[in-house]
Inverse folding.
Protein backbone atom coordinates (compact mmCIF):
# COMPACT_ATOMS: atom_id res chain seq x y z
CA UNK A 1 0.00 0.00 0.00
CA UNK A 2 1.49 3.35 -0.98
CA UNK A 3 1.33 6.40 1.19
CA UNK A 4 -0.46 9.40 -0.29
CA UNK A 5 1.78 12.10 -1.65
CA UNK A 6 1.45 15.40 0.19
CA UNK A 7 -0.34 18.05 -1.81
CA UNK A 8 2.17 20.45 -3.32
CA UNK A 9 1.67 24.11 -2.50
CA UNK A 10 -0.09 26.22 -5.10
CA UNK A 11 1.05 29.71 -5.99
CA UNK A 12 -1.49 32.47 -5.47
CA UNK A 13 -1.51 36.23 -5.86
CA UNK A 14 -2.64 38.60 -3.13
CA UNK A 15 -4.15 41.93 -4.20
CA UNK A 16 -3.53 44.48 -1.45
CA UNK A 17 -5.83 47.49 -1.36
CA UNK A 18 -6.84 50.32 0.95
CA UNK A 19 -9.81 52.46 1.88
CA UNK A 20 -8.84 55.94 3.06
CA UNK A 21 -11.60 58.36 4.02
CA UNK A 22 -11.30 62.14 3.71
CA UNK A 23 -10.08 62.30 7.32
CA UNK A 24 -7.18 60.00 6.32
CA UNK A 25 -8.45 57.10 8.44
CA UNK A 26 -7.39 53.88 6.69
CA UNK A 27 -8.36 50.23 6.45
CA UNK A 28 -6.34 47.74 4.43
CA UNK A 29 -7.56 44.52 2.89
CA UNK A 30 -6.30 41.65 0.75
CA UNK A 31 -7.91 39.12 -1.50
CA UNK A 32 -6.16 36.05 -2.84
CA UNK A 33 -6.65 34.58 -6.31
CA UNK A 34 -4.97 31.67 -8.08
CA UNK A 35 -1.89 32.66 -10.06
CA UNK A 36 -2.40 32.36 -13.80
CA UNK A 37 -0.81 34.11 -16.69
CA UNK A 38 -2.89 36.89 -18.25
CA UNK A 39 -4.27 34.46 -20.85
CA UNK A 40 -5.78 32.45 -17.99
CA UNK A 41 -3.46 29.46 -18.28
CA UNK A 42 -2.13 28.00 -15.08
CA UNK A 43 1.43 28.90 -15.91
CA UNK A 44 4.41 27.40 -14.14
CA UNK A 45 5.58 29.72 -11.42
CA UNK A 46 4.47 33.21 -12.30
CA UNK A 47 7.48 35.35 -13.13
CA UNK A 48 8.15 38.80 -11.69
CA UNK A 49 7.53 40.27 -15.15
CA UNK A 50 4.13 38.48 -15.34
CA UNK A 51 3.20 39.89 -11.94
CA UNK A 52 4.34 43.40 -12.95
CA UNK A 53 2.38 43.15 -16.21
CA UNK A 54 -0.77 42.15 -14.29
CA UNK A 55 -0.35 45.03 -11.85
CA UNK A 56 0.23 47.48 -14.71
CA UNK A 57 -2.93 46.23 -16.46
CA UNK A 58 -4.94 46.65 -13.25
CA UNK A 59 -3.54 50.14 -12.59
CA UNK A 60 -4.23 51.15 -16.21
CA UNK A 61 -7.89 50.26 -15.63
CA UNK A 62 -8.10 52.26 -12.39
CA UNK A 63 -9.08 55.91 -12.16
CA UNK A 64 -5.83 57.94 -12.03
CA UNK A 65 -3.89 54.67 -11.99
CA UNK A 66 -4.88 53.70 -8.45
CA UNK A 67 -8.56 54.28 -7.57
CA UNK A 68 -11.31 51.69 -8.06
CA UNK A 69 -14.68 50.56 -6.69
CA UNK A 70 -14.33 47.05 -5.24
CA UNK A 71 -18.01 46.20 -5.56
CA UNK A 72 -17.71 46.57 -9.35
CA UNK A 73 -14.91 43.97 -9.31
CA UNK A 74 -16.65 41.55 -6.93
CA UNK A 75 -14.33 42.40 -4.02
CA UNK A 76 -15.27 43.40 -0.46
CA UNK A 77 -15.43 47.09 0.35
CA UNK A 78 -13.35 48.28 3.29
CA UNK A 79 -15.60 51.11 4.47
CA UNK A 80 -15.75 51.68 8.21
CA UNK A 81 -18.71 50.21 10.10
CA UNK A 82 -21.47 52.53 11.25
CA UNK A 83 -23.20 55.56 9.85
CA UNK A 84 -21.70 57.24 6.82
CA UNK A 85 -20.22 60.69 7.33
CA UNK A 86 -19.09 63.52 5.08
CA UNK A 87 -15.63 61.92 5.07
CA UNK A 88 -16.89 58.80 3.32
CA UNK A 89 -16.62 58.14 -0.41
CA UNK A 90 -16.56 55.11 -2.71
CA UNK A 91 -13.00 54.87 -4.02
CA UNK A 92 -10.43 52.39 -2.75
CA UNK A 93 -6.71 52.44 -3.65
CA UNK A 94 -4.56 49.70 -5.15
CA UNK A 95 -1.47 49.00 -3.05
CA UNK A 96 -0.03 46.15 -5.12
CA UNK A 97 0.13 42.49 -6.01
CA UNK A 98 2.23 39.92 -4.14
CA UNK A 99 2.96 36.27 -4.79
CA UNK A 100 2.08 33.95 -1.93
CA UNK A 101 1.80 30.21 -1.47
CA UNK A 102 -1.13 28.17 -0.14
CA UNK A 103 -0.68 24.59 0.93
CA UNK A 104 -3.28 22.06 1.97
CA UNK A 105 -3.45 23.65 5.42
CA UNK A 106 -3.72 27.27 4.31
CA UNK A 107 -1.38 30.22 3.78
CA UNK A 108 2.35 29.61 3.80
CA UNK A 109 3.68 33.05 2.93
CA UNK A 110 3.62 36.59 4.20
CA UNK A 111 0.77 38.65 2.85
CA UNK A 112 -1.34 35.60 2.04
CA UNK A 113 -4.83 35.50 3.53
CA UNK A 114 -8.07 33.83 2.63
CA UNK A 115 -10.35 35.67 0.25
CA UNK A 116 -13.21 37.55 1.83
CA UNK A 117 -16.74 37.50 0.57
CA UNK A 118 -17.89 40.49 -1.39
CA UNK A 119 -20.79 42.78 -0.57
CA UNK A 120 -21.50 42.98 -4.29
CA UNK A 121 -23.68 41.12 -6.76
CA UNK A 122 -20.62 40.81 -9.01
CA UNK A 123 -18.96 37.39 -8.68
CA UNK A 124 -15.50 37.52 -7.11
CA UNK A 125 -12.62 36.72 -9.49
CA UNK A 126 -10.92 33.37 -8.77
CA UNK A 127 -7.77 33.77 -10.87
CA UNK A 128 -5.32 36.55 -11.68
CA UNK A 129 -6.54 36.61 -15.30
CA UNK A 130 -10.16 37.00 -14.09
CA UNK A 131 -9.10 39.76 -11.70
CA UNK A 132 -7.39 41.73 -14.48
CA UNK A 133 -10.39 41.16 -16.80
CA UNK A 134 -12.80 42.35 -14.08
CA UNK A 135 -10.84 45.60 -13.62
CA UNK A 136 -10.75 46.15 -17.38
CA UNK A 137 -14.50 45.48 -17.75
CA UNK A 138 -15.34 47.86 -14.88
CA UNK A 139 -13.17 50.58 -16.44
CA UNK A 140 -14.89 50.13 -19.82
CA UNK A 141 -18.34 50.46 -18.22
CA UNK A 142 -17.16 53.38 -16.05
CA UNK A 143 -16.57 53.62 -12.33
CA UNK A 144 -20.07 54.25 -10.86
CA UNK A 145 -19.97 56.43 -7.76
CA UNK A 146 -22.76 56.52 -5.17
CA UNK A 147 -23.89 59.61 -3.33
CA UNK A 148 -23.25 59.29 0.41
CA UNK A 149 -25.37 62.27 1.41
Amino acid sequence: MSTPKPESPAVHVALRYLYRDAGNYKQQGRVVVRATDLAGAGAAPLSDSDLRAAEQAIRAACDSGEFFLPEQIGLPTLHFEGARTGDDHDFHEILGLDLCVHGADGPLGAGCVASSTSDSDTPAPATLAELVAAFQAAARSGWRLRSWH
About this structure: The beta strands are 10-20, 26-34, 67-68, 92-103, 106-107.
